[in-house]
Structure formats: structure tokens, C-alpha cells
Amino acid sequence: MIYLVTVALALALALSLRALWKQNRALHDLEQAARRGQPLLHDESPAAYLPAWAVLTEAVNRLITQNNSLQQQRSDQLAQLEATLGNLREAVLIVDGANYIHLANRALREIFPGARDLVNLRLELIVRSGPFLEYVRATREGTVLPREEFEIIDGDHTLWIEASGAPIPSPDGKSQWALFVIHDMTNQRKLERVRRDFGANASHELRTPLSIIKGYIETLVDGHQTMELADRDKFLRTIQRHSERLKSIIDDLLALSRLESATPGLKFAPLSLTGYYGELLEEYRNRPQAAGHTLTVNVPASIGLIEADGEKLAHVFGNLIENAFKYTPKGARIELGAAAAGDGDVECWVRDDGPGIPTADLPHIFERFYRVEKGRSRETGGTGLGLSIVKHIVQLHGGTVWAESGEGGGLTIRLRLPRRQKT
What we know:
Elements: H1 2-36, H2 51-85, E1 91-95, E2 101-104, H3 106-111, H4 123-126, H5 130-140, E3 148-154, E4 157-169, E5 176-184, H6 186-223, H7 229-260, E6 269-272, H8 273-285, E7 294-298, E8 305-308, H9 310-327, E9 333-340, E10 345-352, H10 374-379, H11 386-396, E11 400-406, E12 409-418
Parallel strand pairs: 7-9
Antiparallel strand pairs: 1-2, 1-5, 3-4, 4-5, 6-8, 9-10, 10-12, 11-12
């Protein structure tokens, strides 16, 4: 009798343990199904025959299906937004309540090229600007804010953006997101700074000769009757010299204005550099400034033709040759050269063996009104605009220009020009 009771208890315990194992296995299967987001079939569960587990499985499957539907709906909505906003010229940004980015169209990725994959990143990792992040937070909370401009530090570069935003509900309707339209204002700010600096520099350069002319004229008006003839002649020559300088500055300003206009008026035609250089150098050899200088041409006969505006290039090379006259001592050698370059381009240069330019100044010499030696430049009649004009003409030809100066002296201005102009 005791034996039968023991067997019965052991059998009952075994059945209970098996049932418990099946329940644990069923619970594990449900957990894995929920993690995968896939409904669990009844016949997949070891406890499928248990009514309670069948009810639980049905409930979990419904939750999984509903969650999948919501996720798909959310993805469809974001895809629709991406399709609608992706090709807009304005940059569009959507962030959630935790500042994770859910939409960043192509225009926004162009503003921040260093972070191509913006979606699912925290906004703080992309936009390092406390004021903008505060603007995002306030907008998401429903505060009505006007369009604002922000300075963004991106590594060694500074960006300026203009943003306007509005709160939007999340796809599941349970939280508040925010949508922003952003404009890149960096180039506009740079142009404004250039325009501001240009205006200040131009005013300063014009004021100098005008002040001298005005002062000398006032002296002549007040004392011309008692002034010595030699002093009067000196005053008049000073007025003449500064009047010519004033005219040079105005002429260069007008030239820059024409070159920067929508119709700079270039006339391209086939040009032989060999003959062109020869004629140009022959003209400058006969000028008084060329006395004591040696002018040479270094152009291979096989250089061929290029398409260019000969009159505008004469302005370029003339400016470079005159600079070489001004800043090199008597006996210096000035060379005009050209050679074939890669990609079908032609590289031209004007080289002298004068004192050269300090390395720190080389990147700036094509800026408006920039002078390596300000006092000396004014003494020689320079306006500080000549090399800016050179740069503009070369760029209008689709080329580039740069300067090289050796440690032992000498300066080379190089121009790389396309052989054929794009139509």
C-alpha cells in the first residue's frame, strides 16, 4: 500500500514538473515571438492544448499584430513625408521628444556634409548650438516663436542657419515632435562681410587722395598770391598725382563692378599664345618703366591655340608685368611663359627674380585692397585692386590663379586656363 502511494505521488510530481516545463517553454516562446514581432502559432507552443495558454497566446498575438501595424503605419507616414519633402530646396528636419532625428531631407544633409546618416542620431551630435537646441525644445512644447538665425560651429567651420519650426504629433499620437524648415545663410553672411569690408576699404582708399587734394587746394586758395612759384608748382603736381591715383582707384572699382555683373562682356576667340606674348612684350619693352629690365618669352611652338578674350587677358598680363616693373630692381629679369597642363589645360605664368613676397602674404595678395607693404604700394601708385581684377578675369575664363615665391626671392604668378571654353 505504501508502495502504491509512493508511486502515485511520484507520478503526480512528474506530471506537475512536465506541465511546469511546458508552461515555462510556452512563456519563453511567447517572449521570443514578442521580441521578433511575429505572432506565435498555436501548434508551435508545447502548452497549446492548455486553454489558459491558448487565451494568453491569442492576446499576445493580437498585441504583436497591432504593434506591427502601428510600426508599419509610422514607417509609411515617414516614407510619405520623405517622398514629399525629400527633394525640396529648403532643408527639413523632424525630431522627436528626445531630440532623435526622424527625417532629414537632402537639402539638410548638404548643409551638414560631415554627417550624411542623420536619421536616428541625436540632434546634439549634429548641431552644436545651445540657442538652437533651446529653440527646438520651446517649439516642441508649443511656444510660438518667430523665425530666428543661429550660428553653428562645425569643426573649424562656422555655419549660419535660419530656422522656423512648428510642433507636430508623433505618428502614434502619444508624444509631441517638431518640424523645422532651415535655410543655409552662410554664403549670404560671407558676402555681407565681404561687402562691408569692401565698402570700408574703398572709403578709406578714396578718402586718402581726396583729403590730400582738398588740403592742398585749400592752401592754394588761401595763399596762392603770396606763395612762392616753386611751392605752388609742387602743390599742383601733388594734386595732379593724387588726382591720377583717385582716377585709377575709380577705374579699377568700375572694372571690378563690370566683371562681377551678370554680363561681364567677354568675347572668346581662338588665340595663339606665341604671337600674343610676342606682341604684348614688344609693347611693354618700349615703355619707360621697362628700362633696365630684361623681358623674355618662354612658350613652345607646339602650345597651339586657346579660346580666350584677348583684350581681357591683356589686362591680366599687363597688370602682372607692371607689378613686376614696380617691385623689382633695375636689371631684374621678367619672363612670360606657357606650357601644356593636364586635362587639356594650359598653364601661363609671369615670373621675376625680384625680392618676392613673404609666404604668409601669398594666400591674400588677390584680396581687394590687400598690400604686402602698404606704404610702398601707395608710393608706386598701386590701388590694391589689380590682382583682384586679375583673379576675376581668370575665373571668368574658367581658370585658377595662384602665386609662388621662393625662399631666395623671386615671384611667379601662375594662371591655369582651359584650352576650350564650355558652351
